[in-house]
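Hi there, hope your week has been kind to you so far. Would you mind checking whether the C-alpha cells look sensible for this chain? I owe you a coffee for this, so here goes:
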Amino acid sequence: MNRRSFLGTLTAASLTTVLDGSRAELAQAQDAAPKQDAKSNFQENATVILVHAAWADGSCWSNTILPLERNGLKVVCAPIPLTSLTNDVTALKQELGRTSGPVILVGHAYSGAVIAAVQGDYPIKALVYITALAPDEGETVAKIFYHEPPGPEAPKMVPDSNGLIWMPDDAFARALTAHASADQSRIAAALQRPLSVPCIQEPAPTPLWKSKPTWFLIAEDDRMISPKTQRFMAERMGAKIRSHHLDHTPMVSEPAPVVDIILEAARETLSV
C-alpha cells in the first residue's frame, strides 16, 4: 500500500484513537522511568542533543526526553531537513549555537553521519551512536550502509521523481519498528519524512569520532543496518560498545537501553 492510500484509509476517528493510545503509552513509559531529583553532578547547562534519522522527526525521541531530564540533563531534539549531509550538519550547528553548556550529540541511523561531520569550535564532549551509521573520511552513507547486506526484511527503495526516498508504509512494522506496537508503527509511518539522495551520496569529512569519546549501542535485531556493520563501525571508531536485542528504532520500542547508554556517556564526560 502506498503512502497516499494508507493515509486515506485513516478516518479522523481512527487517527484520534491511535494518537490517544500513543499518548497513554508515552505517559506510562515516562511515569515508569526513575523519577530522580533534577539536581545532579553534571556541569551547568549540560545538554544532550538528540538528532533524528531518515523517515522520522524529533518525536521519535519522545520516550527518552523525560528520563534524561529527570537525571539533571537538558535535552533538545534537533530538527534536520534531510536534504543533504551538508544541509543537515548546518541545521545541527544552528542548534548547537543555541546551547550554552557542554554537549553530547546522539545520532540514530543516518544522523550518525551528521553528528560526526560537525566542524568548528563547539563544546561537544562525546558522541553516542544508536544503531547509527559512521562513515569515515571520504566514505558515503550509502557505502557504509552496505558494508554488510541489510536483513531480508529491509525494503528495496528508489527515489521518486523529486529525488526523494520514501519508506513503504508496511516496511515500518516489518523492518524499522519491528519490536514496537502496531499503533506505534502506524504512527511512525504517518509521520515519516523522506530522505533526499544527496544525504547518502555526499562524502563525509573527517569524522568527529576520531577525536571525541564515543559510545555505540548495537541493535542485534536490527533489520535495516546489519549488526555486523554496526560492530565493524563501532570497533573502527574505538567506541565503548553496548549490545542488546533491539530493533532499528529502540528509542521508540525499548527506550531503557538508549537512556542508559546516554547517561553513561554523560556521567563520564559531563560531570562536574
